[in-house]
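tokens incoming
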């Protein structure tokens, strides 16, 4: 999957924070109360500084806390790929996708020239 070279504003958006179209594969994990971990994947549709909308393979419920990983479109010093880790809560689920309200985020290096190991790819939900 190729990353977009620019972001495009979502037309006719009336929100205070503008949303940008950004399609990218996402991986996410959810920790349950018993300590087990559920891992899934999906496709991001758009993002703003407050939320990410994505379509998940599995149905998610509002109130679910997730950590979501997505590729960042720029490289660190034109050498190392980056990914964004977003922690937050699912605030709404519609037929257009789940809305993850961003609680915190960070950019991390990833890939072969990274300072850390790349995460394992996930193809569907699983208990870890």
């Amino acid at each position: 999957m190729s990353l977009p070279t620019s972001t495009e504003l979502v037309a006719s958006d009336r929100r205070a924070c503008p949303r940008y179209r950004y399609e990218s594969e996402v991986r996410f994990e959810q920790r349950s109360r018993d300590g087990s971990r559920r891992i899934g994947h999906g496709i991001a549709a758009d993002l703003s500084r407050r939320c990410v909308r994505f379509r998940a393979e599995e149905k998610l419920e509002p109130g679910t806390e997730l950590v979501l990983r997505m590729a960042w479109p720029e490289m660190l010093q034109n050498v190392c790929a980056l990914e964004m880790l977003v922690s937050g809560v699912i605030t709404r689920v519609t037929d257009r996708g789940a809305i993850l309200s961003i609680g915190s985020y960070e950019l991390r290096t990833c890939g072969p020239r990274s300072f850390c190991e790349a995460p394992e790819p996930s193809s569907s939900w699983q208990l870890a």
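note: The chain is about 0% helix and 60% strand.
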